[in-house]
Amino acid sequence: MSPPPPPTMQSGSPPPTQLSPPASNGQQTVVAANEHMIMPVTKRSPTDYIFGKVIGEGSYSTVYLAKDIHTNREHAIKVCEKHQIIREKKREQVRREKDALNILSNSGSSFFVKLYCTFQDAERLYFVMSYAKNGDMLPYINKVGSFDAACTRFYSGEILRALEHLHDLNIMHRDLKPENILLDHNMHIKVADFGCSKIVEQPDTADSDITSTESSVISDDEPRPRSNSFVGTAQYVSPELLTEKSISCSSDLWALGCIIYQMIAGLPPFRSSDLVAFRSEYMLFKKILSLDYEFPDGFNADAKDLVQKLLVLDPNERLGAKDDKRYTSIRSHHFYQDLDFDKLHEMNPPPIYPYLPGNSESQELRSQYRVPDHLEPGLDYRQLTRLLGLDGQSSSTTPAPAPRPRKRAGVLQMSEEEKQHQLQQQKCNNKWHNLVEGNLIVKQGLVDKRKGLFARRRMLCLTMGPHLYYADPTTMSLKGEIPWSPQLRVEPKNFRIFFVHTPNRTYYLEDPEGFALEWCKAIEEMRVLTYGVSTTTCA
Ligand code: ADE
Predict the structure, then answer these.
(1) For a substitution probing ligand 1, which of 35, 49, 51, 55 has the most ligand atoms within 8 Å of its CB?
(2) Number of compact structural domains in the chain
(3) Are residues 121 and 161 in the same domain?
(4) pLDDT given at position 534
(5) pLDDT in tens, 240-294
(6) pLDDT at site 218
(7) In a domain, 210, yes or no
(8) How much is the average pLDDT of 305-324?
(9) Which of 67, 238, 265, 341 could form a disulfide with 50 if both were Cys (CB 3.0 to 4.6 A apart)?
(10) Is the pLDDT score of 494 beyond 60?
């Protein structure tokens, strides 16, 4: 593990160890003057960059946000520790990544991170790449639970375009997953992480820099991995990569099918919840090999048909596998009707907003709330009034439940002595007491917590602190906590459904008894009690 990065931006200090001076043996490959122009320049070294925060970490590398002191441009610089590459036998992986990125950087597509240059010093290898300002796609899926059809169409369309380009260059990615789909400042994709990639018809890659010339670092004494050994990430790996039968670009089409499923449903199709890691992976592989997955209720019908045609065990039978150059059979699938694939890179991407997909019991719901770039009043009382039907024109189809007696306001204004007394009572009488870390419960109740199209019943406990704990009511085990901050906001959608927005995630909760508005009021009162009546959120 590398020591922590420098707290402030520092020029020229190789980030992991501040003391080592930049080596004079830095070797130069290429640098791009702009996104599409690659030209040789004079030697680069760590002193040409100001290293800032860590934006990614791997087993032998750390990615830093860095600024080129000559151009003032921001870059993502992947710094690989030579001794760790050797110790973890990752020589081949580093070589692959550099070869693939070099080919792609010369190819003029905007759908990939660009490799501007590489250099090294005594201890490290440096990959200077384009910086994708909005990070990777996974937190976006997790934040909103699932994408709506327009977002799924757009982003899977861009991924398809990237795959067309990649496969046309005879490169297989082999580790395609939401974490490797980065988003640039305009929210267009940049596919990254080519450590598992394979160039099918190996062009002459015996160039003269890091991976081939420095025999002390990347010598050829490391055994090459078996050509068909399992690479990639378990949840997205294709059956043929597991059974080592064959490898082809079709493996990336399988991963595309998994990603489309995840965008729509909120979770990838093949999952295992076994707590023991190796058993979990074994279960997962069994599921992949037997095509054991299901579509949750409410899955978009066209997307379902597309996913079914991509998640096919025989790689030759996957949609697109027999296409030449472009994936015309995928492009012409009904799910992509009206999508102009050739204009995607010029289009404004659809916004990724909190959205609850509908299923057979509920209709889809869109959030009015915009995070983090909007300032919002805490609880919209006008909306509450409307939802409660007090404005004479109820917007909810769900009948209003009879109001419950309210004890909460009292609890929030209790003296310390009274609180201690209540806590004692809670300890003796409330079976959830042990799960809430000794905090006084203000409100509790069963809710269905939705993530995309999946729902789980949870006991939700709002406590002093404040905390919002949720627990599995069957096993009586704590499952997590909705993180509190002054930015937390509730949004009632109807008498059953309410959203809890936090900076990193929107939680979709459904009170089967229809007391969503009570939850919203209790949470909002707690927010005001804790943080004051501020009506604004920070971006
Ligand atoms: N994390 C890893 N590589 C990155 C890049 N090029 N841009 C942003 N974040 C990254």
Answers:
(1) 55
(2) 3
(3) no
(4) 57
(5) 999 977 789 999 999 999 999 999 999 999 998 777 777 888 899 999 999 999 9
(6) 31
(7) no
(8) 97
(9) 67
(10) yes
Q: 146 with 124, same domain?
A: no
Which numbered atom of ligand 1 lies nearest the CA of 190?
Answer: 6
Residues 464 and 518 in one domain: yes
Q: Which of 126, 129, 137 to mutate to test the pocket of ligand 1 (most atoms within 8 A of CB)?
A: 129
Atom of ligand 1 nearest to the CA of 56: 1
Give the distance between the most distant pair of CA atoms in the chain: 80
Q: Is residue 93 part of a domain?
A: yes
Residue 392's CB is within 10 A of a number of other CB atoms, namely 7
- Residue located nearest, by CA, to atom 2 of ligand 1: 56
Give the number of other CB atoms < 10 A from CB of residue 510: 22
Which of 112, 129, 146 terminates a domain? The answer is: 129
Nearest CA to ligand 1 atom 8: 132
C-alpha of residue 128 to centroid of ligand 1, in Å: 10
437 C-alpha to ligand 1 centroid (Å):
38
Q: Is 181 in the pocket of ligand 1 (CB under 6 A)?
A: no
Q: What pLDDT is recorded for position 289?
A: 97
Query: Domain limits at 88?
Result: 29-129
117 lines ligand 1 (CB under 6 A): no
Least confident of 99-113, 115-129, 215-229, 484-498: 215-229
**Is 420 part of any domain?**
yes
3-state secondary structure of 478: strand
> For residues 310 and 319, is the Cβ–Cβ distance under 8 A?
yes
Lowest mean pLDDT among 116-125, 201-210, 307-316, 335-344: 201-210
Residues 111, 114, 118, CA angle at the centre, nearest 5°? Answer: 160
Task: Read off the pTM.
Answer: 0.82
Ligand 1 center–CA 32 separation, angstroms: 17
Pocket of ligand 1 contains residue 115 by CB under 6 Å: no
Burial class (CB in 10 A: 0-12, 13-18, 19+), 177: buried
Give the span between the Cα atoms of 246 and 261, in whole angstroms: 24
Q: Among 177, 207, 204, which residue's Cα sits nearest to residue 189? A: 177
Query: Ligand 1 centroid to 130 CA: how many Å?
Result: 8
- Tell whether ligand 1 has an atom less than 6 A from the beta carbon of residue 129: yes
202 domain residue, yes or no: no
Ligand 1 centroid to 150 CA: how many Å?
25
Residues 392, 29: Cα–Cα separation, whole Å: 71
165 shares its domain with 286: yes
How far is ligand 1, taken at its centre, from the CA of residue 271, in Å? 26
> Quick check: CB of 65 below 6 Å from ligand 1?
no
Cα–Cα nearest to 127, from 102, 157, 92, 158: 102
Question: Are 377 and 501 members of one domain?
Answer: yes
Which residues are identified as catalytic? 175
